[in-house]
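Hey,

The postdoc asked me to send both predictions to you directly instead of through the lab channel. I've kept everything plain text so nothing gets mangled by the mail client. Protein one:
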Amino acid sequence: MPKSEPRSRKNDPETTKQDILAVATEEFAAHGLAGARVDAIAERTRTSKRMIYYYFGSKEDLYLAVLERAYRGIRVLEAQLDLSSLAPAQALRTLIETTFDYDEENPDFIRLVAGENINRAEHMQRSIVLRDLNISVINTLDEIIKRGLEDGSFKRKVDPIDLHMMISSLCLFRVSNRYTFGTLFRRDLSEPTLYAAHRKMAGDAVVSYMMSADEAAHCRDAPPETGAAPARGSHGRAYSPCR
């Protein structure tokens, strides 16, 4: 069988760059920055190292471009949800379920995040794009929280960055720890019934948290206790729900 000819990209540099980024995402996710090979990326994209360096400058800059592309994927998806047209609780649940599905469908994204944490975000710190890009989800959550507090559907005032961390934790862990967790507890976290249960659980947990009273705020506003005997726990020790 004759060897296939490389595709001509002379008049389509944007397609060339996107091809390189797609393959580089898989290479960096599988091997990390140190173990990834630009030669392998060039071979799979039927281009050359010289062209890759022409477009991206260096291996480190290509890696950073891959990170930016990975985060842009989820941020663009979030922007398409039209959450402002939904009631606050439904908007929050939709955002959570979208994040849950995206993480499941994009394990390379999770591996890249894990790898960059190993590197203590050394390369991410150089990116103004990433800082600006990820402000959008915080602004979205801030708007949902404010609407929920205004209409009374939310009882808890939460920093949107903290809420984003909570959502990310529930969605990301099950992908990043899929193999260790699955091996220890003999569970396939991608099995459809279990997947659906965990997806609902994540939404229920966060939405219920936002709908519950903020006990810390209640304790700040509560008058000091006078005369009443302190409540005692199961071991006989006094405790206060506002401690």
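Protein two:
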Amino acid sequence: MLGKLTKHEFLTVGRMALPTYIGVLLIAVVGRFLTWLTSRKYLIDNVPKTFVKIIQILSSLLSTIYVIAFIALIVMTIFLMVYRFYKNFFTDEGYLMNTLPVRPASLVTSKLFNSWIWIIFSLIIAFGSLYITLGHYDQLIDMFKNLGTAISDVLDREGDFIRDELGVPIWVFVVELVFLALSYVTRYILTWYSSVGFGMLLSKKHKVLGTLIAYLILEIVSYILVGIYLAVAAEVVPNYYDIINTSGGKALQLVVVGSLVLNTIMSGLLFWFDCFIMKHRLNID
């Protein structure tokens, strides 16, 4: 059932998101083509100046439109993520969704999976459109190759020192960073989900305002938890202040691991809170 819910949600969001993604890519392609035209000396020398000016104006205009579309792509992904959660569970659709023979945990998980999928798609489209817009593909490829070579050289020369500073193998630290990024995004998604549910409890007539207030409250709570974590860490971790002051690598390791643990705990609490509201405090229009 979880697979069917995820598939249905993916197709529903796709019908709304794909036109925007295609539009951003088309704007990038047309803008790149106009930029290419204006860089052709033969064209500039052999066509009326008015035509060249029109092309240049269109190129500048499309560049502005692309920036707006790029931002809109990110905003739209977040909006769809929140809107679909609200519409499925807190409008008339909630009467159907909440009568399905599945637990609230499965419903929330299906939404979470889809949010992850569409965030990844958005990043792919964003970087793809940026790649098209910038051009100079050989230079970009060379830049990444040089960056990889530079990192490899640093690891060959300073690998032992970096490992001693971090207190763990470098590949372990990289894995920690990947999981840290996953935990941040997961907490962000679940915070918005909880804000929608909590916002419905705060104000049924002013849903948007209630959601924003709930989001602000949850963010304040998260900062309080971070403060509590830092206070506890200072008491529990041996030589905490000495580590912070004398070893940059181990201090960074403490921050990464602590943030990962804290985000995981907060994500678990938010997930439980979402399921609790849907099971016991559901407020459907």
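Summary for protein two, as requested: The CA atoms of residues 22 and 275 lie 35 Å apart.

Thanks,
C.
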